[in-house]
Amino acid sequence: MLAFILLFGLIFNIQAYQREYTGITTSLTRMRKFVDDDKKPLDRKPDLPDGNLHNRMVVEYDLYTFVLDSENNIIDKISHSDKTIDNTILTKASSILKNNKENKISLPNLYIGSYAYNFNSSNFLMIVDIKKAKERLLLNLLLTIILTGIFTILIYIISKKITTWITKPVMESFNKQKEFIANASHELKTPLAIMIASIDCLEETKKNKKWINNLKNESSRMNNLITRLLDLSKSESSVIQENFKVNDLSMIVQKNVLTLESLAFENKVTLETNIEEKINFLCNKESMDEVVTILIDNAIKHSFKNEKVYVNLSKIKNDIKLEIINKGEEIPKEEKEKIFERFYRSDKSRNRADNRYGLGLAIALNIVKNHNGKIEVNSKDGYTTFTIILKTLKK
């Protein structure tokens, strides 16, 4: 729709320009015909004062004719409008006669020019004041810009309302889904805790040990899933940033690195840090703990054995930059956006064995968004880098 409006405005202004251009050209050539009709042979002085040329009027433009002798001296001056010939026009005529030796018709750009003329050496000079045409064209251009702006705003408002109306059922369904997940998780938490406690109380014998272990393992998996669902629901809920506090992000990252060193050791991975000290950030400390843990844990578990995971934290101008880098299998380009979706798992068999449900990165994305930051992933040459950009405190 906007493209159609722009195209219409462009065509309208082109046609207006062409109309003015044609009108000026026609006025110059038509008046030349009148001069040729009224003149006597060129070797004689024109007998124009008593002829018809003085009575020729041009309504649309201010046109002036200067009749010349063989030396290009002005011997007669005629205004074809209700305006008299002032010094400005005389100065312009003198300039044209001085700088032009050959017959020519000159029409400048009508948006920036002031005069057009038809010069016939030793015969005549016609000058058209095109200021009125320029004013009309500039007014048309201004109106086009204003109308385009108004229509653009109207289209934006209408399209936004239509989009809201169309997506409202989808958003309601999505919100109900989130509410259901949160409510169901809460409802399942209590009976699951009772089940786990009951399993622990069961007496193990050679006969039932296998089944009790299976119950414990599956109960543990279900408990982890419900916990992650509750974390996801919490990260998706509205955040009141007024309740954020200033925390030392450097200490938060360092603490989580130390906590996860044992996991890195188990996976035969080394954690290497480059953390700038005393970077303060207005945030929810528990949420930042969680997003850092998620990303480092993810990097450790997707690293090749005997490789390093790099954790870098630095301040660049008004931004805080957190990088988690690991060497492992590259993330395919088509999956770079999908990995942040809920329940998305690129390797379902492996993630199930590791009790991974495809919720961690979705939670991390929500937490970063709640802190007005952005998170992105880049996977190239065997290295995968998760980058978080946050805004520093204003001093």
Concise synopsis of the structure shown:
This protein is α+β, with helices and mostly antiparallel strands.
Largest sheet, strands/sense/barrel: 5 strands, antiparallel
Examine the coordinates and then state which fold CATH places here, giving the name of the CATH topology of the largest domain. Heat Shock Protein 90
Mean pLDDT: 80
Please mark out the parts with pLDDT under 50 across 5 or more consecutive residues, or reply none.
Answer: 40-51
The appropriate CATH architecture of the largest domain is 2-Layer Sandwich
- Rounded to an integer, what's the Rg over CA atoms? 41 Å
Number of domains: 3
Terminal Cα separation, in Å? 45 Å
Q: What order do the strands of the largest sheet run in, or round the barrel if closed?
A: 2-1-5-4-3
Strand content: 15-25%
Q: Treating each run of at least 4 consecutive H or I residues as one helix, how many helices?
A: 9
Q: Secondary-structure element sequence?
A: HEEHEEEHHEHHEEHEEHHEE
Given this structure, which CATH class of the largest domain is correct?
A: Alpha Beta
Percent helix = 40-55%
In quaternary terms, these chains amount to single chain
Label the overall shape. Answer: elongated
How would you describe what is shown here?
There is one protein chain. With 395 residues, this protein is an alpha+beta fold. It folds into three domains: 2-129; 137-235, Helix Hairpins (Orthogonal Bundle), CATH 1.10.287.130; 242-391, Heat Shock Protein 90 (2-Layer Sandwich), CATH 3.30.565. 51% of the residues lie in helices and 20% in strands. The chain is built from nine helices and twelve strands. The chain has helices spanning 2-38, 87-99, 131-201, 209-236, 249-259, 261-266, 285-301, 348-353, 360-370; strands at residues 62-68, 74-79, 104-106, 115-120, 124-129, 245-248, 269-275, 280-283, 307-316, 319-327, 374-380, 383-391. Strands 2-1-5-4-3 form a five-stranded antiparallel beta sheet, sandwiched between helices. Strands 7-9-10-12-11 form a five-stranded mixed beta sheet. A hairpin with a 5-residue loop joins strand 1 (62-68) and strand 2 (74-79). Helix 1 runs antiparallel to helix 3 and helix 3 packs antiparallel against helix 4 (209-236). The radius of gyration is 41 Å and the shape is elongated.
